[in-house]
Amino acid sequence: MKLQELKLTEEVGGKNKKLFDENEDNIGLYVKRQLFDIRKAEPGEKVKVTEKGKEPKLRVATEGDYVLRAHDDVEQLNLIDGEDFQGTYKQIQPNDQPNAEGFITYREIGDYEAFTYAGEDTYIYTDWNTKQRIKSGDYLVRDADDKNSSGFVVPAAEFDKHFEEVK
Predict the structure, then answer these.
(1) What is the Cα–Cα distance from 105 to 91, expressed in whole angstroms?
(2) Alpha helices in the chain (DSSP H)
(3) Which strand (E) or helix (H) includes residue 165?
């Protein structure tokens, strides 16, 4: 069976606004669950940036950079600049002190709207023009502050691992 693509419009409100409008009563508010351990990097510090499925790269920190690692996977390291850090992450405990390695636990800032898709299997397009398959039971997610966002698909089996409903 060939899947049909949703007929998407370029009108203001996002390519998939119609889906969000049709599911307005089923939209929930969520935050990301993923926690990160973050510390200020020393200028000149060499950081072995490791990402799943990719070869490690050695990067040298500059003034204002931060070392970031997934809270549940301390082997995954990344180096981010201060501008990417500011306004993207907030401490879980506001007065938390650094651990022995200098890390403090953070979460990404931002609220997300999502609903469970109940239509036929099809494809949608994201804001970054990526074609994603969406199946009944999957979630269509968008930044809560951007009603013009097309959103993105999160498979049903992955959603609860990555998002937590705001109560």
Answers:
(1) 6
(2) 17-22, 82-85, 156-162
(3) strand 163-165
Beta strands (DSSP E) in 41-92 are: 46-49, 57-60, 66-70, 73-80, 89-91
* Residues pairing with 163 in the sheet: 32
Strand, coil or helix: 117: coil
Task: Mention every residue, 6+ apart, whose C-beta is less than 8 A from residue 52.
Answer: 76
* Cβ partners under 8 Å of residue 100, min gap 6: none
Give per-residue pLDDT as tens, 17-62. Answer: 888 988 999 999 999 998 999 999 999 999 999 877 788 999 999 9
Note the pTM of the prediction, 2 decimals.
Answer: 0.70
For 127-146, the pLDDT digits (tens) are 888 889 999 999 999 999 98
Q: Are 140 and 134 in contact (CB under 8 A)?
A: yes
Spatial distance between the Cα atoms of 79 and 28, rounded to a whole number of angstroms = 33
